[in-house]
Write a structure and sequence with these properties.
6-stranded mixed β-sheet, 30% helix, 7-stranded antiparallel β-sheet, globular, 12 helices
Length: 400
Amino acid sequence: MLISLKFKNFLSYKDETQLLMTSVKAFKELKETNVFKARKFELLKTAVVYGPNGGGKSNLIKAMGFMTHVIHNSFADSLKKKEDQFDYDLQFILNSESENLPIEMEAVFIKNDIIYRYGFHIKNNVIEKEWLFHKKDVETKLFEREFNNFSINNNTFTEGSKYKNNINENVLFLSYLAQNNTKIASEVFGWFYNVNVINALNNDNLIKATKALFKSSKFKIWLSYAVKFLAISNVDIDQENNIMTYHNKFDENDFIVDTIPFDLDTVESEGTIKLVYLLGAIYDSLKIGKVLFIDEFDAKLHTNLTKKLLQLFHKFNVKNSQFVFTMLDTDLMDKEIFRRDQIWFVDKNKFGASELYSLSDFDSSVVRSTSDFKKKYLDLTFGAAESINISQNLVDLLYD
């Protein structure tokens, strides 16, 4: 369960940026469906991020993807040739100071009723700082690191003392410990393993995961039932590992006489392809209680379909899965779907840096729970909606 994601100096984000999944307790709207309790927290099931093209929405999703990538791969990457290693140099480059500073990442989350706070600073593949704290009653340091100088709590993190002298400067201590199956590090590593980050405009990282789910007959039944509205009678996978959708064939009297298999990736529409793979990610997240990040969630989907998929997270989310996504469809910026603290905006300032802020940051003189969120947004009340300026000069230059 994600409490917060904080990062700095990553891609278009220069300054410290924080996405909070904690609810504003003063807000009473949609509390029964969109909020769940964990420890002493009231956490949001979903968070949607709006903003103009080029504002930095995708980079917010990439920040979580970057953090999970470093955690999962820093050990394996350190064994590769330099030219084959992942490019970790993704600092904000529109400032002469920030381009020479490290990327900063930190996540706060709950695993097995314990609150963890884990983060690191990385520059040129070198881990400059790294830390892990946990909280049962009070927050306790497990370890802190500055380059290869370690401060380890020998009372609560004895597993760290054994391996601290084995760490190279380009390997996360957490990742190294998890490779050695130490208890606490494996718990933390396991939480990040259950964070899925997806670019919904590109199916590549969805295909493998969704196809693997076909090993479960329950998933095949669920998926086939979910896509019946598309006149698909069944979905399965063939011996060549291709997903096949089956459509009924009718005779002259409209009786079913056969079912015809379509190769999903070559015959079906782009929207159907997107939906099938997306349903795999949603099923996996809801079934296990994962945290799902998706960029451009609504791409190629009808508004009514997107709304129904959100209902799965708001009304039928038994395992308290969380869903963070970017979207352009303002028809869903609706007080009947989202609370004010679930709606976030990204926009760029005059220095070219992205800034993240929440609808809940605006006081009641600007927006209330009963306000028309969409109208106010499109009227530029909240910012983050600027578009091309069709000025007379632009028109003159077009035809000059």
